[in-house]
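Thread title: Can someone regenerate the structure for this chain?

I was given the following input by a collaborator and told the matching structure tokens would be attached. They weren't. Posting the sequence so someone can regenerate them.
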Amino acid sequence: MRGKRLVLFLVIAVLVLLSATTFAQTNKLKRIGAYTLVRIRGNVPTQEVMKTLVDRYAGDIKMGFDMAGQPDLYLPFMDQVKAASFRDAQVPVGGVFQWMLFRSQGKVKVARNLEWAGTKPLDVFEFDVKQGTKTYHYIIPKPCGNIAFIDVTEEIPESVCSLTVTPDKVNIGDPVTVDVSGARNAKSVTVEIYDAKGAKVATQTLTSAQPRWQTKFDAPGEYSFKAVALNMADKPSANPCTAKAYVNFPPACKLLSSCLPCNDYVGRTITFDASGSTDPDGEIIKAVFNLTDASGQVSDSYTATQKPFVWERLFTKAGTYTISVTVYDNAGAVSAGGDACKLTFEVTQKKFFWLVEAGPALAHGTYTTYFFLRGGFFYWLAPDQFSLVVRAGGAVPSRGDPWKFFFLADVMGEYHAGPVWLGAGLGYSTKDQEVRKSGLDIVGDAGVDVFNTRSGRGSVFFEFRSPIGSERSFDDHHKFLLGFRMLF
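Best answer:
Regenerated them for you:
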């Protein structure tokens, strides 16, 4: 039994193999015209006749395309064959058709794997049907109206590059967007960036999935973008694909001061000048000044929006200050910090002044009127708080004997609270009558500044002098003075 089963299995296997081989073999076609798909008058129809017949037999053709396994090509075939330009061609002996539509016993049929085995080449009309990127090649033998499918070729379209760069003018560090989304039939687009000297500074490959790229530049100047698209066959695009972007040159600031160092400048105006700042590709529209104290805290600021971009500032306190300036151009670029944009300086207060005082005075007793004039110097021990005054002069009586000219001199310490000041010290005055005595005085004064400038100040004051010691009585030796003090 086992032997019989083995023989039966081998017979079946051989039959299947022979059937498959027979199915795969090409059928020989030795003559044409016996089983025509459409009825044709004459042996060789014209192109116009064939297009008319195709339209007339549309239903049969649709059936044939369904049977041939190309139902999706029926509509493209019908649309394009009517407008197609048939080409005269020949199928050589041995030429192969993948399938051919014909009619047998009134029914549309499909013959597959045909080989032309005639005695001479077969005259045909040749035409193409395009769908997507594929081109399907068909023929119609001239002796009949059969439709035969030869083969299909894949056509890879040429790529078309597209490149946009936005914005086309930026400042250093601003983002620039490169966009190739408008490219067609492109597998990829390679973008290269060159600076003004022609040196390549960046390369980026983009695809339809990621068609945009954002980049930045850290140096000013003009940059050129060049792009090439590759199609599915890696063939580069032929159309020009370039763009440019300009990176704005930032302005260069320059700062000058009307004094450096600024000795004795408390109470005076210092001018800070940024008019020497420049911009190589635009114009400066704004300058921002910042003043910081010795601790680094911003104590004041000023924005100049018109030429010549200067700031005049009055300093009321001594100290070490730093002035810095930042300039802006018309494209929004900002100057970089540096030595040219910053100055550190010391503002000092004038401490030494010459002094002149004058005014009326009343002497003791009957309070005879005198006119006094004295000079000296004024020195700040602690600016705007404590001062030292040394002065000397004389007083002339308004009457004669027994009153006489007397000399007076003082050393005073004074406390200042804004424009008001109080002082006390030790003085010396000579006798104002022959019967009086010279000696030391305790001196007190009080005054109010009526003006105060860098170059000087003026004050009105009241002074009282009282003798020291038992040899000089208070009644005979005290004095009152009302005067005007000028410091310069």
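Residues 164-247 form a domain with the Immunoglobulin-like fold (CATH 2.60.40.10).
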